[in-house]
Amino acid sequence: MQNKIEFNGLLLIDKDSDITSFGVISRLRALTGIKKIGHCGTLDPFATGMLPVLFGRYTKLAQYLEAMDKTYQVEFVLGAATDTMDKTGQIIDSVDPTELHQLISSGELDRVLHNVVESDLTGEIEQIPPMYSAVKIAGKPLYKYARKGQEVDRQARKINIYQAELSKIRLQNEQWVCTATISCSKGTYIRTWIDDLGRKAKCYAYARSLVRQKCGNLELGNGSVTLDELFKKKEEFAADQSKLRNEIEQKYFYPIEKALSDFPQYHLNQTEAEKVTHGQKLIIDGLAEIDATSLIQLLYNNRLLAIVSLNKLNEVQYQRVLADKV
Fold first, then answer.
1. Model confidence over 91-123: pLDDT tens digits?
2. Any idea what the CATH number is for the domain that residue 284 is in?
3. What pLDDT was estimated at residue 314?
4. How many Cα atoms occupy the beta-carbon half-sphere of 32 within 13 Å?
5. Looking at per-residue confidence, does 312 or 212 come out higher?
6. Which domain holds residue 285?
7. Catalytic site residue 291?
8. Distance separating alpha carbons of residues 81 and 95, to the nearest angstrom
């Protein structure tokens, strides 16, 4: 009987355009031979940038990484709206090009856009998920309804836009474009934010490019890797998956403890660590400042064993256990 492969880690994938987030997972499964893989926070096919990917037992931690705040840079086209709210869709609304040019030349549209952002699209706002999205209604993703030309009622969701900065409007490839850098909470649809901005400013807009720059404290360019880079390693190791996995583990896995650095750490001794791996009762002292809602990383020899919380008696309440042996 073949031994089960243990391959637990976090990859920060710098996603290319024109591939789905699930497509990234499929390619990584083929590359590594590992089936238990999951991504944290879907990116649209046309979008690029930070896509955290978890392997093995670390897939248990997806909910924590998905909950992180995000930062995006989006370039959007002014003067038209599409059914997908991005460049992949069909134009459904537009303004007169001459009027648009006059509004931009006078500086009026710049002022209007900034006013709309400040008054209506910053802070806690409500957002209706776009029809072209993976949100499920009656067990079916919205995009499947959209492809059949069906409109489905969706409930607005509360999100937070912490900061949104706009560039000056510029003419590029015969299109009037603007760039926004947006820091926001989980669940924000940047395409929807752009569509709302264009409609409120009465100029229409759709996203032309979208880059996710940050997920929590994970930042694009700091430990991130592209699929192309990883597949070049496949050639280097003559498709030997065992050697390739070792290379990825040694050179490309990002320390999960750093990714979860918002969670306080407690370093276990050997006796405590053995209790944790067996899910046994454990009392931790010395973390009196931690409230009952806080999550804590339990580490042994700098290796993450579990995510826990504490009750009022300082007893460990297990949330996720990542190891069954020390």
1. 999 999 999 999 999 999 999 999 999 999 999
2. 2.30.130.10
3. 86
4. 27
5. 212
6. 263-321
7. no
8. 9
